[in-house]
Design goal:
The chain is mainly alpha-helical and about 250 residues long. It has two domains: about 1-80, no CATH class; about 110-245, no CATH class. About 70% of the residues lie in helices and about 10% in strands. It has six helices and five strands; from the N terminus they run ααβββαβαβαα. It has helices spanning about 1-25, 35-40, 75-105, 120-180, 185-210, 220-240, and strands at about 50-55, 60-65, 70, 110, 185. Strands 1-2-3 form a three-stranded antiparallel sheet. It has a two-stranded antiparallel sheet with strand order 4-5. A hairpin with a 5-residue loop joins strand 2 (about 60-65) and strand 3 (about 70). Helix 1 (about 1-25) packs antiparallel against helix 3. The longest helix is centred in the middle third of the chain and has 61 residues, at about 120-180. Mean pLDDT is about 90; it is low at about 245-250. Keywords: Membrane, Transmembrane, Transmembrane helix.
């Protein structure tokens, strides 16, 4: 069950993105929903057609006026998507609880700095970490657009959570391999989660200030790399100057 606890959140987020895409593609075309309703009914014009949609449960109705209301999504499909959505929601809840537990659990074994060049380790963390975050954020910029186009608002929100999780996981892995020492796995996971969250916050706020939301511009990739390197450097400085914050058996 350990593997399920580790990957439940990621699996739930990926499943949620797939669910959002399935619901979005079952609804009228978001560019011109009235026209999609007209084509579904075989009407010559979409004038006066009103469209009502909902995500929980997934539903879409085309109102042609005069009491003529037709379901765009069948009852069977709506029930199926609702059941899948509830299963994904349960997996997300379990994954979130497991993740919180991993960030608040036992510190675990201490990894020492014996026979390790900490200056070189610090440089590697800054350089290779920033490079990895640069590449990861460039991928996030592209996938964010795909998620919004195919999953609409729900897809965008779920992908934002996915991006935060991905950046936090990447930062935790980097911390484990080239992060500050001495340390424990718990401390590394916490530093990674913080670095990932702050990196995403930086690109989100910068994009919001420039009015480009919900799409991230490509220039947020180097911004993310700089933000990550800054956070990591501060974490190294804290570890060096405040030994009382380091894990101890005492």
């Amino acid at each position: 069950m350990e593997w399920l606890r580790r990957w439940a959140l990621g699996a739930g987020l990926v499943g949620g993105l797939g669910w959002a895409a399935a619901v979005s593609m079952s609804m009228p075309d978001w560019l011109d929903p009235a026209d999609a309703c007209a084509r579904m009914a075989g009407a010559e014009s979409s004038g006066g057609v009103r469209v009502r949609t909902g995500w929980l449960p997934p539903s879409a109705q085309c109102d042609f006026g005069g009491g003529d209301i037709r379901a765009y999504i069948s009852t069977e499909r709506s029930i199926l998507l609702s059941v899948i959505g509830l299963a994904v929601l349960a997996l997300l809840g379990y994954g979130a609880a497991a993740t919180i537990q991993r960030l608040t659990g036992p510190a675990g074994m201490i990894r020492t700095a014996d026979e390790i060049d900490l200056r070189r380790r610090h440089r590697n963390h800054l350089f290779f970490g920033a490079l990895d975050v640069l590449i990861a954020t460039a991928l996030i910029v592209f996938l964010n657009t795909v998620a919004i186009v195919f999953g609409q608002l729900a897809g965008g929100l779920l992908f934002a959570l996915t991006a935060i999780t991905a950046l936090g996981t990447l930062a935790a892995l980097l911390d484990r391999h080239v992060g500050p020492l001495p340390s424990t796995n718990l401390a590394g996971r916490r530093r990674g989660a913080l670095a990932g969250a702050l990196t995403f916050a930086a690109i989100f706020v910068a994009t919001a200030l420039t009015g480009d939301l919900p799409f991230f511009p490509i220039w947020t990739a180097p911004l993310a790399a700089i933000t990550y390197a800054t956070v990591v450097h501060l974490q190294w400085t804290r570890a060096a100057n405040h030994p009382s914050h380091q894990p101890s058996d005492r």
